[in-house]
Amino acid sequence: MTTSTRGASAPAVLVLEDGRTFRGRAYGAVGETFGEAVFSTGMTGYQETLTDPSYHRQVVVMTAPYIGNTGVNDEDPESKRIWVSGYVVRDPARTPSNWRSRRSLDEELTAQGVVGISGIDTRALTRHLRERGAMRVGIFSGAAVADEATLLAKVQAAPQMKGADLSGEVATAETYVVPAIGTKKFTVAAIDLGIKGMTPHRMAERGIEVHVLPATATAEDVYAVGPDGVFFSNGPGDPATADHPVALMRAVLERSTPLFGICFGNQILGRALGFGTFKLKYGHRGINQPVQDRTTGKVEVTAHNHGFAVDAPLDAPSDTPFGRAEVSHVCLNDNVVEGLRLLDRPAFSVQYHPEAAAGPHDAAYLFDRFVSLMEGQRA
Questions:
Q1: Pairing label, strands 115-118, 86-88
Q2: Is the pLDDT of residue 6 over 60?
Q3: Could you tell me where the beta strands, DSSP code E, fall in the chain?
């Protein structure tokens, strides 16, 4: 990605790898950027979306037409930086209006060098991605704008998301500790594959001291902290490349340590149990996805950000090297596997984001379920 200074009046063009183009105005930094074009259906929470490491190397199209009205504050980021490769909005707010706002979204995108585009028909773009599937895209503005053939060649030369090994690019380099809030009850080793800041906070609220470890952590590193449980986080990239996290999870399963995974962690559990993974046509992204917890029958509205899914049987438990496993949650839109549960060991995972910043909070009980596993193991 190359960028220059802010230039809201500069012309910009978005080019998809199949040749379709959209022309608009620069939003944020001016220059060029590449990534996988995906769309997010959330009407709120754009700051949390931008700073979610799972969006690394993706260009996010916002389906809500009006973005930026609450500005940017210093409390809501999910990490220390914006991770999206590019940002696409239809109608950016001219002036933020919120008592917590410290600066405009346009200013924040410019300061962090994120190239965006505004003033395009995001509804038409979203329909195109739903029909054709997520694909590579480039955004070009200012001096980077050239003839369409040249720009298309650049987009088609960009790397694809399938086969991308990205968790090491977003994970912490060194272990850090998030202390328990109030009385410490448990210690959890959390493997950072692209963890969001709210996740260890949700555990800390329940009296858990969280040791966040790099994606390269070994089983020796994990058990050196004396964990009552092990957590595998969300993260970007193709789970088919995540051989080290899969091997680490199998080592945890062999010891029957209580285990909880979300998003990428769900895909890692699927692979550890012997299931395959596959790339979804356009993925699930946003904060309004309906999921059924099959253990209770309850339907939850949940937050999602994933382009890959686990290929596991929905109709009956499966035999795995670690005992019987079943699909615990399913997406009601398309029957995609949204959770796994081992029946003979204390381990489970979900494909969505129960920490749910910026909401909804229907699935917060899953952290309590993790606590119950650790209580049962201790007893």
A1: parallel
A2: no
A3: 2-6, 11-16, 21-40, 58-62, 66-67, 86-88, 91-92, 115-118, 135-141, 176-178, 186-191, 208-213, 229-232, 259-262, 276-293, 299-311, 318-320, 323-331, 337-342, 347-350
State residue 8's pLDDT score: 54
Per-residue pLDDT of 12-60, as tens digits, reads: 999 999 999 999 999 999 999 999 999 999 888 899 999 999 999 999 9
Backbone φ and ψ for 189, nearest 5 degrees, come out as -95, 115
Per-residue pLDDT, averaged over 124-131, amounts to 97
CA dist., res. 277 & res. 309, Å (int): 5
Residues across the chain: 379
Residue type, 110: T
Pairing of strands 186-191, 229-232: parallel
Tell me which residues are annotated as active site. 263, 353, 355
Alpha helices in the chain, H assignment, sequence order: 46-50, 105-111, 122-132, 148-157, 167-170, 198-204, 219-224, 243-254, 264-272, 365-378
Cβ–Cβ under 8 Å, residues 207 and 185: yes
- Residue 367 structure tokens: 């952290």
Ordered DSSP codes for 151-171: HHHHHHHSPPSTT---HHHHS
The torsion region of residue 197 among left (phi > 0), alpha (psi -120 to 50) and beta comes to alpha
DSSP for 47-65 reads HHHHT-GGGBTEEEEESSS
Q: Is the pLDDT of residue 5 over 80?
A: no
* β-sheet bridge partners, residue 278: 309
Residue 190 has pLDDT above 70, yes or no: yes
Query: Long-range contacts: 246-252, Cβ < 8 Å, 24+?
Result: 246/271, 246/272, 248/191, 248/217, 248/218, 248/219, 248/222, 250/321, 250/322, 251/219, 251/222, 252/219, 252/222
Distance CA 39, CA 16 (A): 13
Contact indicator for 158, 32 with CB cutoff of 8 Å = no
